[in-house]
Write a structure and sequence with these properties.
heterodimer, A: 670 residues, mainly alpha, Rossmann fold, Arc Repressor Mutant, subunit A, globular, B: 165 residues, Four Helix Bundle (Hemerythrin (Met), subunit A), Homeodomain-like_sf (chain A)
Chain lengths: 670, 165
């Protein structure tokens, strides 16, 4: 039923009355096709009756496997799925992830269990809503809103498509997330979003075949200048996407676009403001790859990079001061995360080759983390491996972000220097971006990497798909598979996994960092891979939090146009990811919320350091849980990322890598 | 006590002179030799022993309509089937040595879910209690609570039987 099947669905402005996406029915939500899954026959019968009374078309089944086969046989046969959490044959969250990945349908979870962690898990896995049993008919009367909302955002994304523009990130997720955030009226308020855990969240990734190409926003220099102006006007601390959007007053620009761009920008600022010497050293090496990487992180396309480059022109000191003052700790984080994202790109490239390594990645990442201290060069391969764990990268990224003030410095440096590079990249990316998407899509694995446009050029196919939202769709499928494999490899499905995945992300991040410095192509690949993976992570029950973080990262990391795409792609593909992406942005906004930042980073970074990540994750995980529910996935990631980043901070090199553009990794002295 | 007027609007029974569902009154008579019981004091069968069912049951009643006139009955029988299976499984588990508390908890969780779906309040309370003992790994507490639960369950069955007549 997803709208995605490539056709533009006319989404009504409000409660669109369309049914399976292509037909606008005035009777909506009458006839909404619901699939109910619950092993309790009493409850199932009651739900069926209630839904019938709401004039919905109900199909019930008592087994998750049967439900999945229904859905697979009939891709467009359902509009929404309601599932119980505790089922004997398959965990409800796992089903949620599957549906998100394969069909991109909104899924509502139900349970008699109303404990916070379970609900949080629902959020992080991308459930659109969570109902407590016994369910009352009033609760079911409004489930159609999830369908509408989802479609609306998909439609919006599709329609926003501009030629050559880079998508911001996965829009799919954003819409719902956006809504959530908007409703909480506090985009920057992490806590609020947390409280909204029971609200609908973006759930599934769009990995559905809907090959909707997400419109991309090209952050031109002018646009970016406007953005920066708006941000400065509001004050870094108070700059929330909504207000920025208002100030910028650019028609056609959405809050999500601004949000993801803001994320990246924050990362960038962080990098500029607080780079440790280690990073500085690395930064220097990265200087060769200047701003481009930085920009890319935030999902900027080539143009963005230029913009960043321009921004980077601000004297390092000024910027640092500004950031230090404004962003404070969070700034550091965001800045860091941005660089991380970039790094991920690089490392992704390398990792691309290594994707299948999954579990190994963790190990690798550990090593890589060490390497990060030193020189990423060696880590590339490992990083790649790590990158495979998308989730990991995110974690790593976050961590890096958090821990590095150094990054800021390096970022700043990079920016100034990256101008030429950026342009180069931009040019490369721009051209390749479009073409890349299709390529990347094929690659499926690369989903992670698509972020950097630059990378795409180099890599070609690999990168594109991932970052780009549209491509993401395909990727998501691929990715999910990969991710899933990784996820499992990383750990069990239980939350432990998530931690692992998160860790993996960190590792990846580390790896990616290292790699990123090396060069774009590798990073991108990895990133792409990682990203999608991270998304998967989110979807999977395991460490739902983890996923969340992944997405955010992704969005934030798209420095290069491709980056944006990547994130979007990934996030879009992953239902959970989607949710994550959006939330991630939010976390970013809250100063105190490292995780948010890290989330963004995570997306792109996909954990590079396995070892560190694990440790980090343990620490962060709980945090993630407490994070906004919206971000659910993000939280996990964020935590991991933050944790990871912190570790990285101690590690040193890791951060620096992120701080530097992915591009600059090449020059990292060994 | 009249919990809610809507209850009396239930279509399950014919209306008596006072507009109250007759079945309740009849139930009363049957149950408590209420030949002399004033019709206006008809109570819901389940109100006779208050607390047996809660508002969820009323929800089920409201779901019932002309298209599915026996909806409540259908749901309740589904509940009986499912709970019979669970009770049997729990009984068996309690006989095992050593006792698998995780499994017990799982069963009881299911039981609790379905009993709350039909609004069986007291049964649900016992389930919660049982699960607590389970978590504390208190075998005696579990067994004792389970006996109580079975008692409540049987009483509920009795009440519902009357209700359906």
């Amino acid at each position: 039923m997803n709208i995605g099947s490539g056709s533009l669905v006319t989404v009504p402005s409000s409660t669109g009355s369309w049914k399976s996406g292509d037909v606008v029915s005035d009777q909506f939500p009458v006839g909404l096709r619901v699939l109910v899954v619950d092993d309790d026959p009493t409850c199932l019968r009651i739900l069926e009756k209630m839904l019938r009374n709401c004039h919905y078309e109900v199909t019930k089944c008592n087994r998750a496997e049967i439900a999945l086969s229904f859905l697979r046989e009939n891709k467009n046969g359902f509009d929404i799925v309601i599932s119980d959490v505790h089922m004997p044959d398959m965990d409800g969250f796992k089903l949620l992830e599957h549906i998100g990945l394969e069909m991109d349908l909104p899924v509502i979870m139900m349970s008699a269990d109303d404990s916070k962690d379970v609900v949080m898990k629902g959020v992080t896995h991308g459930a659109y809503d969570y109902l407590i049993k016994p369910v009352r008919i009033e609760a079911l009367k409004n489930i159609w809103q999830h369908v509408v909302r989802k479609r609306k955002y998909e439609w919006k994304d599709n329609n926003f498509d501009q030629s050559g523009s880079v998508e911001e990130g996965d829009r799919q997720q954003k819409p719902s997330e956006d809504v959530d955030y908007s409703s909480s009226a506090n985009e920057g308020n992490w806590k609020n979003s947390k409280k909204r855990k029971e609200e609908e969240e973006e759930v599934e990734d769009r990995d559905d075949t809907s090959n909707l190409k997400k419109p991309r926003v090209v952050w031109s220099v002018e646009l970016h200048q406007q953005f920066v102006q708006a941000v400065h006007q509001l004050g870094i601390d108070k700059a929330v996407p909504k207000k920025i959007l208002e100030l910028m007053n650019v028609p056609g620009l959405t809050r999500e676009n601004v949000a993801s761009h803001l994320q990246k920008y924050r990362l960038y600022l962080r990098r500029l403001s607080g780079v440790s010497q280690h990073q500085n050293g690395l930064n220097n090496s990265f200087m060769g790859h200047p701003d481009a990487t930085f920009c890319t992180i935030s999902s900027l396309n080539g143009l963005d990079l230029q913009a960043l480059a321009a921004a980077g022109q601000i004297p390092a000191q000024n910027l640092a001061t500004l950031q230090a003052a404004a962003l404070g700790k969070s700034a550091t984080k965001s800045a860091i995360s941005m660089p991380l994202d970039q790094r991920n790109f690089f490392s992704f490239e390398n990792s691309k080759l290594r994707f299948p390594e999954g579990p190994q990645q963790l190990n690798n990442s550990n090593k890589q983390i060490d390497l990060l201290h030193g020189i990423p060069t060696t880590m590339e391969s490992k990083q790649l491996a790590n990158l495979h764990h998308p989730s990991q990268s995110f974690v790593g990224m976050n961590m890096q972000v958090n821990s590095t003030s150094q990054h800021n410095n390096s970022v700043l440096m990079r920016l100034s220097q990256s101008q030429p590079r950026t342009q180069l990249l931009n040019g490369a990316n721009n051209g390749s971006q479009v073409s890349r998407l299709p390529l990347s899509m094929q690659q499926s694995l690369s989903p992670v990497l698509t972020q950097s446009g630059i990378v795409d050029n180099a890599r070609g196919s690999v990168y594109n798909p991932v970052s780009q939202a549209s491509s993401m769709v395909d990727f998501s499928v691929n990715q999910s598979k990969e991710l899933q494999s990784y996820n499992f490899s990383l750990g069990s499905n239980s939350s432990g996994m998530s931690s692992l995945t998160n860790q993996g992300m960190l590792q990846e991040e580390v790896n990616s960092d290292i790699k990123g410095s090396r060069g774009f192509p590798s990073n991108y690949d990895i990133f792409n891979e990682l990203q999608p993976k991270s998304q998967n992570w989110g979807l999977q029950n395991d460490g739902s939090t983890f996923d969340a973080s992944l997405h955010p990262c992704m969005q934030g990391t798209q420095d290069v146009s491709s980056q944006l795409l990547l994130q979007q792609g990934i996030s879009s593909t992953h239902n959970s990811g989607q949710n994550r992406n959006a939330p991630i942005e939010k976390p970013m906004y809250s100063n105190g919320d490292e995780i948010g930042h890290s989330n963004t980073m995570c997306g792109s970074q996909l954990n590079s350091g396995g070892g560190n990540m694990l440790a980090v994750k343990a620490e962060r995980f709980p945090d993630a849980d407490h994070q906004n529910t919206n971000i659910r996935e993000q939280f996990g990631r964020d935590d991991l990322m933050s944790a990871f980043l912190r570790q990285q901070a101690s590690v040193g090199p890791v951060e620096t890598e992120f701080g530097f553009d992915g591009y600059t990794l090449d020059n990292l002295p060994v | 006590m009249l919990k809610s007027s809507k209850y009396f609007r239930s279509s399950l029974g014919e209306r008596n002179f006072w507009g109250f569902t007759k079945c309740f009154i009849e139930e009363k008579r049957e149950d408590e030799a209420a030949d002399w019981w004033p019709s206006w004091t008809s109570l819901r069968p389940l109100d006779v022993s208050p607390g047996y069912v809660d508002e969820q049951f009323v929800e089920l009643e409201e779901l019932q309509d002309d298209a599915t006139p026996n909806f409540v009955e259908e749901v309740v029988s589904l509940f009986y089937e499912d709970s019979a299976r669970l009770i049997h499984a729990i009984d068996q588990s309690l006989e095992n040595h050593p006792i698998d508390f995780a499994k017990l908890d799982n069963y009881m969780y299911q039981f609790k879910g379905s009993s709350s779906s039909i609004g069986a309040k007291k049964v649900k309370t016992e389930c919660t209690q049982f699960m607590e003992y389970c978590r504390a790994q208190n075998v005696e507490g579990c067994k004792r609570t389970f006996q109580q639960l079975k008692g409540e369950y049987t009483t509920l069955q009795r009440k519902l039987e009357i209700y359906f007549q």
